Amino acid sequence: MVKIELLNPFKNREPDTAVDSVNKLLLGLLAFKLAKISRIDQLIARTTYSNSIDTLNYQTQTALDVLNSFSHRVLLADEVGLGKTIEAGIILKEFITRKLAKKILILTPANLKIQWQEEIKSKFKEDFIVAKSPEDYENEKVIASIDTAKTKAHMDMINKYYWDMLIVDEAHKLKNTQTHNYKLVKSIQKERFLMLTATPLQNNILELWALIDLLHPGYLGTKAAFIKNYVADKDGLKMKNKKLLKKKLSAIMIRNIRSSTGIKFAKREVKTHLLTFSDEEFKFYQAVIGFVRTEYTKLEKTTTLKESEELSEEELKKMAASQKGMLTFRLIMLTRQLTSSIRTGINALERYSENLKDTKELSVIIENGKQIKSDKKFEKLLKILKSEKGKVIIFTTFIKTQKNLETELAINGHSSVLFNGKMNSTQKEDVIEEFRMQKKILLCTDAGSEGRNLQFANVIINYDLPWNPMRIEQRIGRVHRLGQKKKVIVHNLATRDTIETYILNRLYEKIDLFHVTIGEMDLILSQLKKKGSIEQTVFEAAINNDDGFAHNFSNAQKTANKIKKIDEDFFNNE
């Protein structure tokens, strides 16, 4: 933590005259007394959220330090899992209560904007609107996806206002000074500025300079001066004058580390259940994957373009790429729904067939699927539920699977409650309360789970496995976080000889996914060399039986570990 020192009014003073000396002495004594009187030693807003969250000592101290010594600009860089969002919320609430901040903007990655909105609402009783149109910035409290905010219409409206407070989450993603995101944040007029990141150092030391220069322009000098003073190699991976740099950073950055907080996180036990299809299920699955491969091969061979008088060749290529991308996306979604459940897969096939000219082959496959009586995955789910006595959260990617599970569970005597992204805030609050007080089972989609802390449950069942590894840890993170008192048990359901087992064996187990944290996974993904989305990369690798992506992932993890070591050596070691 940062050591706070009061300024000495007598230090380096040389009076010009005797009168001037007396005046300066009196002013100095007055300033010294005011500094002591005005020092904040308690959080006046604490009573407004004490029933919603259990604040920890280091979080309270961080908020006090910001109020006393970092009143305008600070980088909150706690290690992963220590609750930077809570710290930011405490600071935000304090500034609002003290009437020091009225017009506030929070910029987040797209997948976190709802999480921020719901956490600030549920924990700190503050209502923020999520910006969808430029006019939304006329409101006093706004949350926006940074990718939305950087568009010209949104950026122009943001820059019309002077913001009392700006908060930027996942600030390490602003490491490149040439990006639109970086330029957006730099252009915003703001009185107070909070940046949040668990990994201020990622690829090299110069990224640290970029972050600090965004937070406090010129604080570490020019880029050239920073390189001269602190960078010891051409790759920016070795430092010099480390103590001096750390001292300068201590005046603008707060970093809490796990070892200094004394916090003990709950243990995590992972149980992976590899299932075997029945003969009829396996035959159906193979038929669908064969169909998908054929459809995808057709797309790969679509290279010829018809001439057009209205469109240039370049525009035609873009159109073809867009159409191909759309069709590829539909095949990916079809395959993902098939691996979620047979019934969800059949429903997806029926929708896909609506856009085909020749539906004969697919109609036969669909009809065969409807004849399947067994459901090995659901049978295993019932056995797990019988063995688990506590509250259980069953995650699935798709609402169709969620609703099927609700029906089948009810038939088998299990009462459950649904939670998904289609619900409004009030409905979500009611569902969570019903789960907390009455129900044993919560059926939850990924979209619905964002922003929810469900530590009163400790058992998670991944009914289907997301293809993006970040989603796995986000699911687990709903229960395995600060405040969890019990051991967290994670059940993964996957069927042999499917894309799920490809992902499980060649990807997730290679990086020990089920034991890494969100911050660590974010770092690994930032080092991944890929074209398009992770889902598309996984799909293409599985369809083509290509192990290249798995090796790429392993290499990304090795690079991430090197970066993590640099970060730890600098920030955690004296």
Task: Please name the defining characteristics of this protein.
574 residues; seven-stranded parallel sheet; 13 strands; 24 helices; alpha/beta; 50% helix; 12% strand; single chain
Write the layout of secondary structure elements.
Layout: H1 18-38, H2 57-69, E1 73-76, H3 84-97, E2 104-108, H4 113-124, E3 129-130, E4 141-145, H5 146-149, H6 152-158, E5 162-168, H7 180-187, E6 189-196, H8 206-215, H9 223-230, H10 242-249, E7 253-254, H11 258-261, E8 268-275, H12 279-300, H13 313-340, H14 342-353, H15 360-370, H16 376-387, E9 392-396, H17 399-411, E10 416-419, H18 425-437, E11 441-445, H19 446-449, E12 459-462, H20 469-477, E13 488-495, H21 499-508, H22 518-526, H23 534-543, H24 548-571
Parallel strand pairs: 1-6, 1-7, 2-4, 2-5, 3-4, 5-6, 8-13, 9-11, 9-12, 10-11, 12-13
